[in-house]
Amino acid sequence: MTIKTNRLTIVPYTTEWTPLVQEQRYENGPELEHHLSELAGNPALLHWGSWLVIRQDGNIIGDIGFKGLPSANKEVEIGYGLLELYQNHGSATEAVDALVDWALSHLAVATVLAETSTTNHASIRILEKIGFQKINASDTALHWSLHQAVVSK
């Protein structure tokens, strides 16, 4: 399974991609290793965990993914992060939009959720551009939702 956009290739992270991750010394947090551990125990998580975001030149610029299988309520939560060098160029918006579209194309998903800190203005802009609606807020976090019916592409 591969998702292609104008500038990016987005692939589910498996051990097949580990040599490229190591070769490029890609490090953006513990999510990738955590995903591989969980995937080994539950192969159904393949598309519902970490995905790599790769530019056309083959450079890994970030990772994106879901925080587990869709719930009984047909909800899945997305998370994402790009290396600082590749932020503020529209790549995160492009990747999040593509993966959200992919998720909402499945019968198991009716709603995609997200969470940002109240000070992460870049992530807030990304979610707003894609059409997420703020559903809850605390002093430190904002919670977002995008329902299948809202997607109008």
Helix run count: 4
Element pattern in H and E: EEHHEEEHEHEE
Work out the strand percent. 25-35%
Q: Would you report the number of β strands?
A: 8
- The helix content is 25-40%
Average residue pLDDT:
94
Helix-strand makeup class: alpha+beta
Shape: globular
Largest pleated sheet:
8 strands, mixed
Major β-sheet strand ordering: 1-2-3-4-5-6-8-7
Unreliable runs: none
Task: Round the Cα radius of gyration to an integer and report it.
Answer: 15 Å
* Termini separation: 22 Å
Task: Offer a quick outline of the entry.
By secondary structure, the protein is α+β, with helices and mostly antiparallel strands. It has helices at 18-23, 31-41, 91-104, 121-130, and strands spanning 3-4, 8-12, 50-55, 60-66, 75-82, 111-117, 133-137, 141-147.
List the topology elements.
Blueprint: E1 3-4, E2 8-12, H1 18-23, H2 31-41, E3 50-55, E4 60-66, E5 75-82, H3 91-104, E6 111-117, H4 121-130, E7 133-137, E8 141-147
Parallel strand pairs: 5-6
Antiparallel strand pairs: 1-2, 2-3, 3-4, 4-5, 6-8, 7-8
Helix pairs in contact: 3-4
Model description:
The longest helix is centred in the middle third of the chain and has 14 residues. This protein has an eight-stranded mixed sheet with strand order 1-2-3-4-5-6-8-7. Strand 5, helix 3 and strand 6 form a beta-alpha-beta unit. It is an alpha+beta fold and 153 residues long. It has four helices and eight strands; from the N terminus they run E-E-H-H-E-E-E-H-E-H-E-E. Helix 3 crosses helix 4.
